[in-house]
Amino acid sequence: MSNLFSRFLNNYIPAQCLVCRGLLNQAQSGVANSAICQPCQQALPRWQAAESCPRCARPDTQGHVCGACLRKPPAFDQTLALYLFVEPLQSMIHAAKFARQWAIFPALAGQLDTDLARLNELARLNADCMLPLPLHRQRLRERGFNQSLEIARTFSQLSGIALRRELLLRVRDTEHQSRLSAQARWKNLRGAFACRGNCSGQVIIVVDDVITSGASLQAAAKALKQAGAARVINLVLARTPFK
C-alpha cells in the first residue's frame, strides 16, 4: 500500500471498527490502516463474479448475461462490484450518505487491497482512466461530498489507474433515484451527463457506490460512448441483489 494512501487513511479513519464499533488496531484488522476489523471484513457480503451477469453484475445468473441485458444491452460493457447491497452493508452505506459518516466509503473501498481477483481483473482491463459518477453542483452543496469521488480516490490509489474527475459532468439536477420506480429512474437520467473532452478509443472505468437499476451508470456510459470511448466499465462498491 502506498505511503500517500496510508497517510490519507490515517487522517480520516476512526479508532473504532466502523461496523461493530470495537477498538481497532492493525492486529485486529489484519490489514494495515483498515477501519474494519477482520471478523467484520469476513462478514461483509462479497459479490461473486462467477455467479453474476458480466454486464450489470446481477448476482443470480451463474455467470451468464441476464435476460434484461440480452433484451436491451446497456451502453456500458461490464460491471464489477466488491459487495452485495444487503445488511449490514446497506445500513452502513445509508449512514455514510445521509448521516455524513463518509469515512465509511474509503474504508470499504480500501478492501479492494485484499481482493486479488478483482485487482487482477482491473489490471487486465488496461483502462486509460477512472472517474467518479458526478453529482450536480446543487446536490453537492446539499450533501457536502460526492461519495463516488471518495470511493474513486481509493480505487485509483490501489489500482494505479489514473483518476480524471473532470471528464464527466452532471449537467442536469435530477430527482433522487431512490424515490422513483424502476421505469421512472431511466427517464429521470436522460441527458443528465455530458463529457468534457475527447475520450476517443479509451477504456474508461466509472465508479459509483451502488448499482440497482443501472440507470445512472447507463446515462453516464452513453455520454462517454458518444464522446468516443471504446469501452466503459462500472466499478461499484455494491450490487443490489435484484433489479
From TrEMBL:
InterPro entries, alphabetized: ComF/GntX_DNA_util-trans (IPR051910), DZR_2 (IPR044005), PRTase-like (IPR029057), PRTase_dom (IPR000836)
Gene3D superfamilies associated with the record: 3.40.50.2020
Record domain Double zinc ribbon: where: 12-70
Domain named Phosphoribosyltransferase: residues: 197-239
Pfam families on file: DZR_2 (PF18912), Pribosyltran (PF00156)
Family: Belongs to the ComF/GntX family.
Official protein name in the record: ComF family protein
Biological source species: Chitinibacter mangrovi
